[in-house]
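Review box. Two proteins, two foldings.
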Amino acid sequence: MSALLEVDGVEKAFGGLRALDGATFMVEEGTIAGLIGPNGSGKTTLFNVMTGYERADAGEIRFRGSSIAAAGPDRVFAAGIGRTFQLTRIFARMTVLENMLVATKRHEGWLRSVFRAAGSARERERAFDLLDFVGIAGLSGVPAGNLSYGQRKLLELAYVLVADPAVILLDEPAGGVNPSLINHIVDRLRDVNRAGKTLLVVEHDMQFVMDLCSRITVLDQGRVVTTGSPAEVRTDPAVLDAYLGGADDEAEAMEA
């Protein structure tokens, strides 16, 4: 497999706080990769830099071998990189279907797409198909603000899939989700991967990451501690020290 997405020596500081300190790793095409680390380790900042919401102070980001370090969010998205957010970004007063139809017109710009959410018959069919895929087609006429948090996560996933990206960055897809929906989300993400999409997942739910991802990168204080298989990460002393503080009870939780 070849590297689809590469992060090379990326640095980012906010005032005197160094959020990223030479972060380096790669995501291989066709895989489900994980990015974990303690609170404040720089995971969301790294996602923001990779998707153009923040500009790196130094380092390089490459997608399919080409630099995207200076690209804004629209260019990154157009290149084939989709992204969800830790706190879901939906149009709460619009229906679930209207949210999807906005997504079909993102190439027109956000504001214009909101006012043209009616959609063609083909766009509506694709929107329904994706809602059906994630399991919320029956809620298509419901205001998005009325959805449970887990259902909002599913809507956001469907929203990103509209653009048919090559790689999707998922920021805490299981965070705040009812346990009954987590297995459903895992199944959908595996289906997305089997359909040819590459996934990079940030998540605090260790069991979620260990079960879903074939390779995991551990970030601590803006630096990559290690990258390896779930089995390797579970037992790496540097990971247990950096991520779990060496606590026996937390180490046991990582192996649960």
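Next protein.
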Amino acid sequence: MTAAANIVEVTGLSFAYDRRLILDGIDLAIPRGKVVAIMGLSGSGKTTLLRLIGGQIRPSAGSVRVDGEDVSRLDADALYRLRRRMGMLFQFGALFTDLSVFENVAFPLREHTDLPESMIRDLVLLKLDAVGLRGARDLMPSQVSGGMARRVALARAIALDPALIMYDEPFTGLDPISLAVISNLIRRLNDALGATSIVVTHDVQESLHMVDYIYFVSKGRIEAQGTPDEIRRTTLPFVHQFVHGEMDGPLPFHYPAAGYARDMGLSDRD
């Protein structure tokens, strides 16, 4: 696959907080126009990877290129321009609680453009209509449900028609109906906008129906990768346990402990 075919290219990427290694030599590519999931256990470095792609933090080693630009080498102005081509849906939505639904979606348009208010109004209503919430434009975040708040956050993430949209655990805390709605919107809006989406998630089954490709991260490395069908058929023990939600496997049910008899104060003869 040529460089032009990938909107994100990560090469030899390592990152550490002080001496604690989070990512260790990650290589991955995100093709244009696709929806790609990044999965793994909590603490495996998935959200850290999103932060590195967005330029919030800099790698300890290796590189992250977005649309051909080495993110860690950009100055503040260039990084700001690059972020105009990115959208981000944070975990739980992260709406501004003192702004209305309308004003939340209008925020990036006012921050990054000099468009007249009449055009901003039309664009905001268009984005809200795309997520089914044009009628909720005057409500405050406290007046909408969790699923609706997530849809408002999605409308805000696509306000600037970004080339790259990143989702950090978009399904967390949602009921089954809201989860299905958000999943459908991620896929449909990605295709309608001609964008590329990176979805960090624990929700295996929903993702297998929605994404084009999956990377599994474990202990700071890419443990496995493939299409949904390839992941379903995998025989790799860790991935099989994760996908099928098995209680025991490479990740054991029991935390390491001394022998049961010893902990209970019994001798081996008892």
